[in-house]
Design a protein that fits this description.
The complex is a heterotrimer of chains A (626), B (584) and C (179). Chain A has five domains: 17-142, Glutaredoxin (3-Layer(aba) Sandwich), CATH 3.40.30; 180-370, Rossmann fold, CATH 3.40.50.11540; 380-463, Roll (Ubiquitin-like (UB roll)); 468-556, Up-down Bundle (de novo design (two linked rop proteins)), CATH 1.20.1440.230; 569-625, Alpha-Beta Plaits (2-Layer Sandwich). Helices cover 40% and strands 15% of the residues of chain A. In chain A, helix 8 packs across helix 10 (233-256), helix 10 (233-256) crosses helix 13 (352-364) and helix 18 packs antiparallel against helix 19 (511-527). In chain A, 59% of the residues are buried. In chain B, a hairpin with a 4-residue loop joins strand 19 and strand 20 (469-476). In chain B, helix 8 (272-293) crosses helix 10 (328-344). Chain B has helices spanning 19-25, 82-97, 113-120, 156-164, 199-203, 215-223, 254-264, 272-293, 305-314, 328-344, 361-367, 385-394, 416-419, 426-440, 478-490, 519-536, 546-556, 562-568, 575-583, and strands spanning 2-6, 9-13, 36-38, 43-45, 54-57, 64-65, 76-78, 144-146, 171-173, 180-182, 209-211, 228-233, 268-271, 299-300, 351-357, 372-373, 376-377, 381-384, 458-464, 469-476, 497-501. In chain B, the strands form seven sheets. A five-stranded mixed beta sheet of chain B has the order 2-1-7-5-6, sandwiched between helices. In chain B, strands 13-12-15-18 form a four-stranded parallel beta sheet, sandwiched between helices. A four-stranded mixed beta sheet of chain B has the order 14-21-20-19, with helices on both faces. In chain C, strands 2-1-3-4 form a four-stranded mixed beta sheet, with helices on one face. In chain C, a hairpin with a 2-residue loop joins strand 3 (146-148) and strand 4. In chain C, helix 2 runs antiparallel to helix 3. Classes of the chains: A alpha/beta (626), B alpha/beta (584), C alpha+beta (179). At the A-C interface, helix 2, strand 12, strand 16 and helix 17 of A face helix 2, helix 4, helix 5 and helix 6 of C. Bound molecules: flavin mononucleotide (FMN), iron/sulfur cluster (SF4) (8 copies) and FE2/S2 (inorganic) cluster (FES) (3 copies). One iron/sulfur cluster binds next to helix 4 of chain B. Residues 99-100, 102-103, 106, 108-109, 112, 114-115, 150, 206-207 of chain B line the site of one iron/sulfur cluster.
Chain lengths: 626, 584, 179
């Protein structure tokens, strides 16, 4: 297979060779006669059997003896998960949606063999009802700008040559052969890139600290723990373009003087772990990791460390404890990891997306990067758009894009005709953003000004059928479950907040407990040891701020306006509408609906557990929720 | 040096200091619960978990824990703003919202750091309906008593057990609200490697870890007209008990203690120091034997049950190394129930021996199946120094207002050698005083082996015995013991005699001693007092103890002889017997 | 060096032989403080061999790493991924990530709990099924998501639980009653 690349010159040659592999996809002026079928291998599409789809394509190619003319490959998430499984055909760049394994035949026979677009698999834009074959035309993609995701949905992540073919590892080569660490750090600082793991701290400055502190060893850690429930951007990058993360790590290592890196990754992402390991092995074989990289004397290697299901291990000091084989309890900062991190040595911890941005900055220059985004937040941000939104998927937009553009233009608005109520960004550390702020530009400062957070990029859309008190309770429950239990304000304080919130959703809240909730929400951030506790009350604070009327309805009127909090609602059968079809009674898990066939049915309120099945079952609108 | 301002006052402290240390330099009091620094024994708990020490630092977004935040030049700190005081109070309210309100019956009451702080901060009962953790009390061992519901997760015990003692019996278990410090798998303490050194007890700020109380058993015995109740008191008790009655640390209260015990109704008040002298005779004999045959060296001392548990668990293949002599507590008990019983014409079965010890492991030792002679327990109940203070107080005895009295005879006679058993290095020093004279047949002029003294974890010396020079060491604290044993095992170092005490500093720092907030100073005082008693004693070598000599002459026969073996030795630590026992 | 007593007779159990070989391959140096770096990997490995991490396995690992059993136990208890009791043969995991939650995941969970008569975190008495919750498997587009062993069920609707369970009952050779 591949042999070691000894120097920059050989890497350049390799690039020229490999370019041909991907030119049918990456080169708009391609005029060869090859065809290329790219299938999404992201988590959503794989769940819908996209792997089988590729197999089917491969079988057809073989059957027709077209191995040299047609190639089917799998890549990372294309982003438009809502319409998955997705297939893109090059060079003509035709984008098919919701392709089932059995559709391989039609695509192959009509499109590949006969150059006829398969109309039934083409995307129809719901508003204009126009069919669109070029993804770039689609409103979903139009506003996006893919930097961190540049190779996701373009290359096969398991084949290093494809990464090399799109210019992979050129930036690393440039940095280690032509720049001093200080110069490279300067470039990072000029680019304005801020950490995508949540806080947005300048990556260049972080590296500068990492360089400044002395240590006989230093480490670079890629934080791929992605614990935010409902976020999957880092997973997509790891699965779709692991090499760019490794390249970013190597550049970071050169800058600070580290020779060992770790990727700390969630065990819940086996596919990402696998692709990452493949990428590391390939890079090692090529000599792009290991000793004396490109003949420069620079040594750097990367190992994978699995997490084991603890959200708090996304916090950098907890992550370090976890790598050290301990309970993942955070430690106090200062000292920051850049001073004393893994094994007490200077350590730079960066997020996956942060690192994926690094090679591009060196490729296109810091000025190019810095002109994207806003005054204080540069570049793009990837969001995992989910919840009650039409287009669930992975979205990368320039900083400064407004929430409205993100949710309504790209996301296609609220699903099922619901009304927008709030967007939650930043996961359990973030806040709920109400409608009045839809025109807020997305950047670190603006979001925190309105009580939310950029966080790692979860963006959950909520509609009028979501109860904001219950949502706050949901996040608190998460935090209580995930608290490491070390410090008092978080271990006991968040538990007390949860108890108060639960009481409120059960109609047992009072104005006094509401005040206590507020007071806890203010003290806990002030004294908690780590970011988890410090931000834990945010979902409560932001909902208290923007949705006080909903809290009041629960507390004062014992009413849940969204009809979610089961203890505050009950189900009734309207005798005038019930025709006695028995369907509700059969669907009731606790058998509390009585009535003979063709007779009016009645719910025994004592026994009803408010599961809502009857409401769904009744086709005559006889069951109502109050 | 770094200069900063705290509450408007400037202070300079060495680089690396914390805000707390800087504040202390200004005599400003910042409350702490989880933090604990015991410099002398190399113990530092800095987990920053309780968050009651928070202070305001200008320019910092949130409050900073003073105990774990390093100072920086020009830092401006406020320790008592409204924001700070309210946050502290809130955190205390949160702690007590997950705490049982059982102060009235809690072993730690009036000495509990949480209780004291709750009082100082005027905290209110909040969240009365909030969930509280609920764990089973662990009464599984005869020594350590765990009431996890009182645990505030300060983690002091964990640091002590795992880092200083390197026993590794404790861990934080679980996560979030249900986190608890416990043995592996939340098992009972008897199923853990716990050696019952009790060091965790002496650092626990609350009543979550205490010793098993035998006060009621002892009262019952005292009130039982059919029983003869005899008490013996360990050397280290007399220099610590005073603290519980308002005396300064290190006050020697031997005479008052004896008369107090008599007032409680004990039929005889004896001195475990007698047993210590006896130990030296037996152990000394064994040392000389092993030195002569040059086999099974080094010989390790066996008077500390915490240490014996440790070697048994962690170095089972070295079980032949410790001397087979029983500890002074057990020897004294065995002699009371044989020699003394015979002398008094009492049936050993009617005698209850109570020991007063600085120690928690002694409770465990007293309960072991192999610690009996002729079918009766050597020691029936072992009380700690703290329990002695309580039982005296309950029995209306205030040490301050009573006369001094002497121990009863014959087991009241002791030498300075026996007394210094209470501090690290003392057993070895005592042994050397006798071994030297027995081997060289010369009089030891300078009996003070100063090289072996001091609170530091390890001391060593080379002693010239004429024919040969022997290399000896005295080690206290199990972490230090581990280090030296590893060297012995690897052959890196060779010794002939090693004394090991489980508690850093020895029994003066035992897990049963009065709680103190100023441990480094207090330990020093207790130690100095022991050496003072020794210095002022007319007899300073165990083999000069006339009552011990009489005991051999009239009863035991030869040191190391048959009868001595029956009463004063345990033949090898049969681990299987012990573990069977533990599971019962 | 600590020579703790070996806690179990391991020779006869093939699982222990495999684990032993794995740990051998890690070349643990018992006095190197950095040895613990490989502890969590080893726990993953052990759980993949035994299915769970009972006390004997913990002690075995503790012994090989020259750390206390308490340490290993404390670590295991910290991470959700590790379990000290066997899971059901069929592991049903309901995603409770935000995207799934706002799409009704809690009702789906209730459905499964009702259908199997156990709560999340429990195993059916016959050991066949266990229910767990997890947080976002990255397939939010399919919310609410249920994972049965490694198979993803997307957009699960209320009332579908029984049907999914039946698919697996068939595997156990169970006759599914016709209604
Ligand atoms: C509770 C908590 C969870 C976190 N989870 C993650 C995570 O999953 N991924 C991540 O990259 N950063 C996470 N962070 C942020 C990290 O601590 C750290 O700031 C980040 O990895 C630094 O990388 P960056 O500078 O590239 O953003 C988390 C922080 C906290 C407090
Ligand atoms: S804030 Fe929460 S997660 Fe962070 S250290 Fe404290 S208890 Fe642990
Ligand atoms: S809500 Fe559920 S439990 Fe109540 S009546 Fe309807 S089906 Fe039965
Ligand atoms: S499903 Fe509707 S119509 Fe049918 S019995 Fe129930 S309430 Fe009546
Ligand atoms: S531990 Fe302290 S606060 Fe708790 S019951 Fe005992 S004395 Fe009271
Ligand atoms: S302090 Fe208060 S609660 Fe305690 S015993 Fe006295 S009166 Fe009762
Ligand atoms: S008594 Fe000693 S060994 Fe036992 S738990 Fe406490 S510190 Fe550890
Ligand atoms: S048992 Fe005591 S010392 Fe240990 S953590 Fe709990 S309160 Fe602290
Ligand atoms: S050193 Fe003394 S107090 Fe400590 S365990 Fe040993 S005998 Fe007991
Ligand atoms: S998984 Fe296929 S587009 Fe996201
Ligand atoms: S004493 Fe500082 S946090 Fe506990
Ligand atoms: S929230 Fe369930 S898969 Fe993402």
């Amino acid at each position: 297979m591949s042999t070691r690349i000894e120097n920059f010159e050989q890497l350049r040659q390799k690039y020229e060779e490999c370019k041909r592999l991907v030119e049918v996809r990456a080169d708009p002026d391609y005029d060869g006669d090859k065809k290329f079928i790219l299938v999404c291998g992201g988590p959503g599409c794989v769940s819908l059997k996209s792997l089988q789809l590729v197999e089917n394509f491969e079988k057809l190619i073989k059957e027709h003896g077209l191995e040299n003319k047609v190639q089917a490959s799998i890549s990372g998430c294309f982003g438009f998960c809502e319409k998955g499984p997705l297939v893109n055909i090059f060079p003509e760049n035709i984008f098919y949606v919701q392709v089932k394994p059995e559709d391989a035949k039609d695509i192959f026979e009509q499109h590949i063999l006969n150059n006829k677009v398969v109309d039934r698999l083409v995307y129809i834009e719901p508003v204009s009802q126009k069919s669109m074959t070029d993804s770039l035309e689609m409103p979903f993609y139009k506003r996006q700008m893919r930097i961190a995701l540049r190779n996701c949905g373009l290359i096969d992540p398991e084949i290093v040559e494809e990464y090399l073919g799109v210019g992979g590892y050129q930036s690393l080569a440039k940095v280690i052969t032509q720049m001093t660490p200080e110069e490279a750090i300067e470039i990072m600082k000029r680019s304005g890139l801020g950490g995508r793991g949540g806080a947005g701290f300048s990556t260049g400055r972080k590296w500068e600290f990492g360089r400044m502190y002395k240590g006989d060893r230093k480490y670079v850690i890629c934080n791929a723990d992605e614990g935010d429930p409902g976020a999957f951007m880092d997973r997509a990058i790891m699965e779709g373009d692991a090499h760019s993360v490794i390249e970013g790590m190597a550049i970071a290592a050169y800058c600070i003087g580290a020779d060992q890196g770790y990727v700390y990754i969630r065990a819940e992402y086996p596919q990402a772990v696998k692709r990452l390991q493949i990428a590391i092995d390939a890079a090692r074989k090529l000599g792009l990791l290991g000793k004396n990289i490109l003949g420069t004397g620079f040594n750097f290697d990367v190992d994978v460390r699995l997490g084991a299901g603890a959200f708090v291990c996304g916090e950098e000091t907890a992550l370090i404890q976890s790598i050290q084989g301990n309970r993942g309890e955070p430690t106090t900062k200062p000292p920051f990891p850049a001073e004393r991190g893994l094994w007490q040595k200077p350590t730079v911890v960066n997020n996956v997306e942060t690192l994926a941005n690094v090679p591009v900055i060196f490729e296109k220059g810091p000025e190019w990067f810095a002109q994207i985004g806003t005054e204080n937040s540069k570049g793009t941000k990837v969001f995992a758009l989910a919840g009650k939104v039409n287009n669930v998927g992975l979205v990368e937009v320039p900083m400064g894009t407004t929430l409205r553009q993100l949710i309504f233009e790209i996301g296609g608005g609220v699903r099922d005709g619901g009304k927008f109520k709030a967007a939650q960004s930043g996961g359990p550390s973030g806040g709920c953003i109400p409608e009045q702020f839809l025109d807020t530009p997305i950047d670190y400062q603006s979001l925190s000004k309105i009580g939310s957070m950029m966080g790692s990029g979860g963006m959950i859309v909520m509609s009028d059928s979501d109860c904001m008190v219950n949502i706050a309770r949901f996040y608190l429950e998460f935090v209580v479950e995930e608290s490491c239990g070390r410090c008092v304000p978080c271990r006991i304080g968040t538990k007390r907040m949860l108890e108060i919130l639960t009481d409120i959703t059960k109609g047992k809240g009072t104005l006094d407990t509401l005040a206590e909730l507020q007071s806890l929400a203010e003290t806990i951030p002030d004294t908690a040891l780590c970011g988890l506790g410090q931000t834990a009350p945010n979902p409560v604070l932001s909902t208290l701020r923007y949705f006080m009327d909903e809290y009041k309805a629960h507390v004062e009127e014992k009413r849940c306006p969204a009809g979610v909090c089961t203890d505050l609602l009950h189900y009734e059968i309207l005798p005038e509408k019930c025709i006695g079809c028995t369907s509700c009674a059969r669907g009731c898990p606790v058998n509390c609906i009585s009535g003979s066939p063709k007779q009016t049915h009645v719910i025994d309120q004592e026994k009803c557990i408010k599961c809502g099945n009857c409401l769904q079952k009744c086709r005559f609108g006889a069951v109502i929720r109050k | 040096m770094i200069t900063l301002t705290i509450d408007g006052k400037e202070v300079s402290v060495p680089e690396g200091s914390t805000i707390l240390e800087a504040a202390r330099a200004l005599n400003l009091k910042i409350p702490t619960l989880c933090y604990l620094d015991l410099e002398k024994i190399h113990y530092k708990n800095q987990v920053a978990s309780c968050r009651v020490c928070v202070v305001e630092v200008e320019g910092r977004r949130n409050l900073a824990p003073a105990c774990a935040t390093p100072v920086t030049p020009g830092m401006k700190v406020t320790t008592n703003s409204k924001r700070v005081l309210l946050a502290r109070r809130k955190n205390l309210e949160l702690i007590i919202s997950n705490h049982p309100f059982t102060c009235l019956t809690c072993a730690k009451s009036t000495e509990c750091e949480l209780q004291a702080m709750a009082w100082e901060y005027d905290v209110q009962v909040k969240y009365p309906n909030g969930e509280r953790m609920h764990h089973k009390k662990d009464l599984s061992s005869a020594a350590l008593y765990r009431d996890p519901d009182k645990c505030i997760m300060c983690r002091r015990c964990e640091t002590m057990c795992n880092e200083v003692q390197t026993v590794g019996a404790l861990t934080a278990f679980g996560r979030g609200f249900s986190t608890i410090v416990a043995p592996a798998e939340k098992n009972l303490i008897v199923d853990s490697p716990c050696v019952y050194c009790g060091q965790c007890v002496s650092v626990c700020p609350t009543g979550a870890l205490t010793g098993h109380s035998y006060i009621n058993h002892v009262w019952n015995a005292l009130f039982d007209p059919t029983k003869k109740v005899v008490v013996q008191v360990a050397p280290a008790v007399r220099v610590a008990l005073g603290e519980e009655f308002g005396y300064p640390a290190g006050e020697i209260v031997t005479g008052k203690m004896v008369s107090g015990l008599r007032k409680l109704g004990f039929d005889a008040v004896f001195d475990t120091t007698f047993g210590a002298d006896l130990t030296i005779i037996e152990e000394g004999t064994e040392i000389i034997q092993r030195l002569t045959t040059n086999e099974n060296l080094p010989i390790l001392t066996s008077c500390c049950p915490g240490w014996i548990n440790f070697i048994r668990y962690y170095y089972p293949s070295l079980e032949y190394m410790p001397s087979t002599t029983k500890s002074p507590q057990q020897m004294t008990g065995a002699i009371i129930k044989s020699y003394y019983a015979e002398k008094m014409g009492w049936d050993p079965k009617d005698i209850v021996v109570v020991s007063i010890m600085p120690c928690i492991a002694k409770k465990y030792e007293a309960s072991l199946p192999n610690q009996e002679s002729y079918g009766v327990r050597d020691v029936d109940y072992s009380l700690t120094t703290r329990e002695l203070a309580k039982i005296l107080k309950e029995g209306s005895v205030d040490l301050r207002y009573i006369e001094e009295e002497d121990f009863d005879s014959p087991l009241g006679e002791s030498t300075g050698a026996g007394i210094i058993f209470g501090a690290t290095g003392g057993v070895l020093e005592a042994a050397l005083r006798s071994v030297y004279e027995l081997v060289t047949k010369k009089t030891l002029e300078n009996v003070d082996f100063v090289a072996l003294r001091g609170l530091e974890g390890a001391h060593e010396a080379i002693v010239d015995l004429g024919d040969r020079k022997i290399r000896v060491a005295a080690v206290s604290g199990l972490g230090n013991a581990r280090q030296i044993l590893d060297k012995v095992v690897s052959g890196e170092e060779k010794f002939d005699v090693i004394e090991i005490m489980a508690c850093p500093g020895g029994c003066i720092n035992g897990g049963g001693q009065p709680y103190t907030k100023d441990r480094d100073v207090v330990l020093q005082k207790r130690m100095e007092s022991l050496y003072q008693i020794d210095r002022e004693d007319t007899l300073r070598k165990s083999h000069q103890n006339p009552e011990v000599l009489a005991l051999y002459k009239n009863f035991l026969g030869e040191p190391g002889g048959h009868k001595a073996h029956e009463l004063l030795h345990v033949e090898n630590f049969d681990a299987s017997v012990m573990s069977e026992w533990e599971h019962n | 060096m600590t020579e703790q007593k070996s806690p179990c007779c391991t020779e006869s159990n093939p699982g222990f032989i495999e684990l032993d070989a794995y740990i051998d391959s890690l070349k643990i140096d018992p006095i190197d403080p950095e040895r613990k770096e490989k502890l969590i990997m080893t726990l993953h490995k052990a759980q993949s061999i035994f299915g769970y991490l009972p006390a004997e396995v913990q002690k075995f690992i503790a012994n090989r790493f020259a750390v206390s059993h308490a340490h290993v136990s404390g670590v295991i208890s910290f991470y959700n991924y590790f379990t000290t009791t066997p899971k059901g043969k069929t592991k049903i995991s309901i995603c409770m990530g935000t995207a799934c939650y706002v799409n009704g995941a809690n009702k789906i969970l209730q459905d499964f709990e009702n259908a199997l008569g156990i709560k999340a975190g429990q195993v059916t008495p016959d050991g066949r099924f266990s229910i767990e919750t997890l947080r976002c498997v990255g397939a939010c587009v399919l919310a609410p998501v249920v994972l049965v062993n490694d198979h993803v069920y997307g957009k699960v609707k209320q009332g579908q639980a029984e049907k999914i369970i039946e698919e697996y009952l068939v595997e156990y050779g169970e006759k599914v009653e016709e209604q």
